[in-house]
Amino acid sequence: MAFYALLLGASEFSHWPALSNPAFGRSHAKFLDYLREVRGVPDENICNLFESERNATDQLEELTDFLERLPRKADLFVHYVGHGGFVSSQRFFLGLKAAKSGREDGTCLIFETFATRLRTFTASKRVFVILDCCFAAAAVKHLMGPAGDLMSSKVDESLRVRGVTVLAASSKDEAAYAPDGLSLTMFSDAMFRVLEQVDEPRSEVLTLRELKALIEESIATRFSTDGVRPKVHTPYQPVGDIADHPIFPLRRVDAIGIKSEREPVPPTVAQAPVAIRLQRRESFNAAVARSEGLDGAQVAQWQLDATDAKRKRLAKAEAERQRLAEAEAERHRLAEAEAERQRLAEAEAERQRLAEAEAERKRLAEAEAERQRLAEAEAERKRLAEAEAERERAEEQRLAAVKAKRERLAAKAERRRLAAEQERLAEEKRAREQSAQQKVERVRLEQQRGERVLRWTVTLVLMLAGGLIVLRLASPSKASPETNSSRKVDVATLLPTTETWRVPVGSSPTLGPDDALVTIIEFADFQYPPCAEVQPTLLKVREQHGADIRRVWKDLPLVVHPEALPAATFAREVLARKGISSFWKAQGFLFARQNDLGNPVYETLASLFGLSASTTLRAVTSDTHHVAIDADVAVASTLNVNQIPTFFVNGTRLDGPDDTALLATVDRELEVAKRLVANGVPRKDVFEERTKAGRTSAAPIQGDSR
């Protein structure tokens, strides 16, 4: 009798790493070695799909071709080791290398489909199925009865035991295991301990039922109640129960350690049933007697009881066989319908897979770089959300660090400063509406005075120009020292008589060219609403005058605003990592999200600028950029800046968010700057010329603005 083998399973699941286990691969290799060396199955009779990269449909077609090529009389071993489970409607599947979580229907081997193919092509054969996986006994119900023509077997086959028997590593409700410390799975380790006679010598050849009993005994001995008990089922037994057919020869080890594989010569056809029955009874009864501790009389009584039970079971099996024979025509029709349904289901699954692949290809082709970056940011956000427990611990540590930092800053600021600042803010709010009209009036008067000065200045310039023309006509030689001195005096007379301040630009962030005619220096706080409200006016000034305007940013975070300092530190981190252009974008984003300032906003903006969220948060909670911020605060303290926002427009000071006064001052300073340029002052020197005589300090205020 020729032996054939179909080997399935995987030890590495490429798209489902949680299922991977090297013990699966070692168990498969051990069984393959047993088939070749002990059972003597040649390689050309083995269809080995273990670790196959092909999908479930292709593997099903390949094993179908293998089953179709089997001779009419053959013994087939089907061995699977890997992961078993259930999909919708409790459909049992066997995991393959290409298995994907959530898509088991299309990427795993659905056992019902596999069983239909197996029953179709093995009705006249002896099939021994060994399943080393979780819930293995769930496969039994799909192997009940053949899918082909029951009456197609020849007469001589009626005397030969045939059918399908299953040795399952676990019941339909239990998971199988690969314990730590074992190179194989629990089931395979026990099976090869029996087949290689590690525990104790036994008979030459075992039946599947004897093998199961000895495996169960080995597992119980080594693992006690923690072991998973194997199961034996014979769902299809048209002639006898092949679970009682001796089929597993043992691998002997002689005295000098050389393996000896030998199988006794099979009896003649006429003697086969009696010899097989006697050999089975002797081996199986001995195994039961050892496991139960029975004496001779008890064994004899047990044998009588077993014989009576066997007689009843065979009578029941014969009645069932006759019922199956009468219903075979209907079974055949249903099998064909099931095969067609399965084919259509597989075609639909393939169509859906191709449609999904096409949709995915189009989506990836149409996606832009910005969308991909946002998708990565969203994926990072989800990953952080899934690690919530770890984030909570990190957040507690961060809050503790921030709390310590705030306490240090609060001690530095002093309580008198906090009280004074709070009182000043309250007074400012009450007085803002009252002083608005007064400021408008002052601006109007200032404009009138500026116009008078302008008219006087224009007259003076015309007179000076006439005098210069007369002097040049009288003496074409180079101008005398007196003329140059007169010019310097003329430039000075062009400047308004209003008070100016000399504020250092230093390394503060700027927006606009260095030779701009008007420089606007702004002291502001990211969490103070008036500072955000004035930003549209500043943007409007830049749009109207373009390269004639330069903005300079100075940080002045107030201690009453807990997120002012972290926001300023975040903006400085963006400046250090991504440059001045990204700084001004970050400044706009922070003012736009002013009511939501906090770690979530900083994490989102960090991803938007291509920065690491964790690195950016560490910078925000550290002293990395406090030197630059403290320098701005020191300048504000020297100039007695006690109201925000405060602007210095070419040295002219404006306290508070007054859009009208800011626009009027910018227009006036722009006119003054243009007159200076018309009288020979280079554009790059206008800011220096306008502020060189300005004040550099004022009476100090109490406390620290931070």
Task: Describe the protein's architecture and organization.
There is one protein chain. Helices cover 54% and strands 12% of the residues. By secondary structure, it is of the alpha/beta class. A 6-stranded mixed sheet has the order 2-1-3-7-8-10. A 5-stranded mixed sheet has the order 14-16-15-17-18, with helices on both faces. Strands 4-5-6 form a 3-stranded antiparallel sheet. Helix 1 (22-37) links the parallel strand 1 and strand 2. The longest helix is centred in the middle third of the chain and has 60 residues, at 415-474. Residues 147-159, 253-274, 477-489 and 700-706 have low confidence and may be disordered.
Descriptive terms for the model:
single chain; 706 residues; alpha/beta; six-stranded mixed beta sheet; five-stranded mixed beta sheet; 22 helices; 12% strand; elongated; disordered C terminus
Number of helices: 22
* Structural class estimated from helices and strands: alpha/beta
Q: Numbering strands along the chain, what is their spatial order in the largest sheet?
A: 2-1-3-7-8-10
**What is the total tally of β strands?**
18
Oligomer: single chain
Rg over C-alpha atoms, rounded to the nearest angstrom: 46 Å
Based on CA inertia axes, which overall geometry fits? elongated
Helix content: 40-55%
The poorly predicted ranges are: 147-159, 253-274, 477-489, 700-706
Give the rounded overall mean pLDDT.
Answer: 83
Biggest β-sheet strands, sense, barrel: 6 strands, mixed
* Proportion of beta-strand residues: 5-15%
Alpha-carbon distance between the termini?
93 Å
